[in-house]
Write a structure and sequence with these properties.
The chain has 3 domains: about 1-200, Growth Hormone, Chain: A; about 205-280, no CATH class; about 300-320 and about 335-515, MFS general substrate transporter like domains (Growth Hormone, Chain: A, Up-down Bundle), CATH 1.20.1250.20. Helices cover about 75% and strands about 0% of the residues. The protein is an all-alpha fold and about 525 residues long. It is a multi-pass membrane protein. Its main location: membrane. InterPro entries: Dipep/tripep_permease, MFS_trans_sf, POT_fam, PTR2_symporter_CS.
């Protein structure tokens, strides 16, 4: 095992504590303190909007971080400098606890800093391995994901208590201290890391091959791919023009999705035209990236469901009863935000259970647990979690008092889905990406989270439409129950499509060769 791995793992544990520490108390803080000037009827919707807008930012900025690392600074320097911005963001949250502009500045800095480093730490882990020890990479990726949830568990358990008992300055200040420690630990291992330098300008880069494919002329043939890409660009402009009615975040993210979707289709339609001007290896590399992006696109509904455990599920928990619990003589009541601690503790249990029990059992009966099979099954489990949470909401809408402990079942199902999708996705994204594109392709993996949260904003905005709200009312469902079942059906349909695509996907091996 590479001796530098402990520095990266320790850094990730502290960083994840800092991130989830502030993230998991963000919705309760918005509802109880920062957004009190908003009418009660509108406060929940605004808190969800702020939360998911923040998450969109966190998972959009990996595009910037990946590009800077791959082309200019390299992964280590990019992670270090963006971490300092991250620390400054935490400081703003602690200082500007009652100042709307200052607090939102802190959220923006955290989104920028956290997003900038997010794809690079994972890729940096992969850089520490080559063909001689790549068999240990899966163990480290699992340990990496385990430590993320170790930090998340204690943050989810403790920060709601600190927010309640000591106020937001302390509750947001502690995660800032942990992020400063994370940066220091990462810096301490600087002389031990394998530093893969930024890629030199490459005439056969993804963008160069894509541009050649779209613009190349062939005698007697039109350029249908260019027309498709152009249609996507026009649709993106139309989306941006809708900013006054949709809001900037929804309009801009929708424009980005349209550009990527139509551009990718257009490139694939004319990709063979790039042969000759570019190497066969480069052309096939672009084809591989496009295939990976299809997988990422079908992961987005999972993130729509997963990230709402920190918004929609907390809102539901606020209306549930919390019974008095006793452990070893210590009596307490769970706070709504503390229910999120169930997720990381189950992850820490399920990862070793899957590796040492479930997956070996599957192999014994002749079923190979390939990454795509695991991810497809994970999406299906997340859909089932939302069916259960929707049934709980119907129970509550009927006027019954419901214990907060009923959320344990949907948390368990969602967590099983997370382990199968997210932990597997980190390994899949690195192994499938061409060598010159690892930082960027991991950025696209995180962009899938942005798109997933975009679906949430679109659905929330749609529910506010008078025609839609009247239709929901006529169905006999409350708005929140309708959204829960909508997202469950959304994920179930995509899980079926994912299973069909997985049958056609051919895995490749893009780990670094021995030096």
């Amino acid at each position: 095992m590479p001796r530098q791995i402990p520095y990266i793992i320790a850094n990730e544990g502290c960083e994840r504590f800092s991130f989830y520490g502030m993230r998991n108390i963000l919705t309760p803080f918005l509802l109880s303190t920062l957004l009190l000037f908003i009418p009660v009827a509108d406060r929940t919707a605004e808190a969800k909007h702020v939360f998911h807008t923040f998450v969109i930012g966190v998972y959009f900025f990996p595009l910037l971080g990946g590009w800077i690392a791959d082309r200019f600074w390299g992964k280590y320097k990019t992670v270090f400098w963006f971490s300092l911005i991250y620390v400054a963001g935490h400081a703003c949250l602690a200082i500007f606890e009652h100042n709307l502009e200052g607090f939102y500045l802190g959220l923006a800095l955290i989104a920028f800093g956290s997003g900038g480093i997010k794809p690079l730490v994972v890729a940096f882990v992969g850089d520490q391995f080559d063909q001689t020890n790549k068999n240990r990479a899966k163990v480290v990726f699992d340990a990496f994901y385990w430590i993320i949830n170790f930090g998340s568990f204690f943050a989810s358990l403790l920060m709601p208590v600190f927010l309640r008992d000591y106020g937001p300055a302390v509750a947001f200040g502690i995660p800032g201290i942990l992020m400063a420690i994370a940066t220091l630990v990462f810096w301490a291992g600087r002389k031990k890391y394998v530093h893969v330098p930024p890629a030199a300008p490459n005439p056969d880069s993804f963008s160069s091959v894509a541009r050649t494919a779209l613009l190349a002329r062939v005698d007697g043939q039109s350029r249908p791919g260019l027309l498709v890409a152009g249609a996507g660009a026009l649709a993106a402009v139309v989306s941006l023009c809708m900013t006054p009615s949709w809001g900037f975040v929804i309009a801009a993210c929708t424009a980005l999705v349209l550009l990527l979707a139509f551009g990718g289709i257009g490139i694939s339609m004319q990709l063979e035209r790039a042969r000759g001007k570019h190497t066969d290896e480069a052309v096939e590399g672009v084809r591989a990236v496009l295939r990976i992006l299809i997988v990422f696109a079908m992961i987005t509904p999972f993130w729509s469901l997963f990230d709402q455990k920190a918004s929609t599920w907390i809102v539901q928990a606020n209306s549930m009863d919390s019974p008095l619990l006793s452990i070893l003589g210590w009596e307490f009541k769970l706070l709504p935000a503390q229910m999120q601690a169930v997720n990381p503790i189950l992850v820490m249990l399920l990862i070793p259970f899957n590796n040492f029990a479930l997956f070996p059992l599957m192999r014994m009966v002749g079923i190979t647990p390939t990454p795509l099979r695991r991810m497809g099954l994970g999406i299906a489990f997340s859909a089932s979690a939302w069916v259960v949470i929707g049934m709980i909401q119907l129970w509550m809408d009927g006027g019954d008092h419901v214990s907060i402990l009923w959320q344990l079942l949907p948390y368990a199902l969602l967590t099983l889905g997370e382990v199968l999708v997210s932990a597997t996705g980190l390994e899949f994204a690195y192994s499938q990406a061409p060598a010159s594109m690892k930082g960027i392709i991991l950025s696209f993996w995180y962009l899938a989270v942005t798109v997933g949260n975009l679906w949430v904003l679109i659905v929330n905005a749609g529910v506010k439409n008078d025609m839609v709200s009247d239709w929901i009312a006529s169905s006999g469902l409350s708005a929140i129950a309708f959204q829960m079942f909508f997202f469950a059906i959304f994920a179930a349909v995509v899980a079926a499509l994912f299973a069909l695509y997985a049958l056609r996907y051919k895995m490749v091996d893009n780990y670094r060769k021995t030096t």
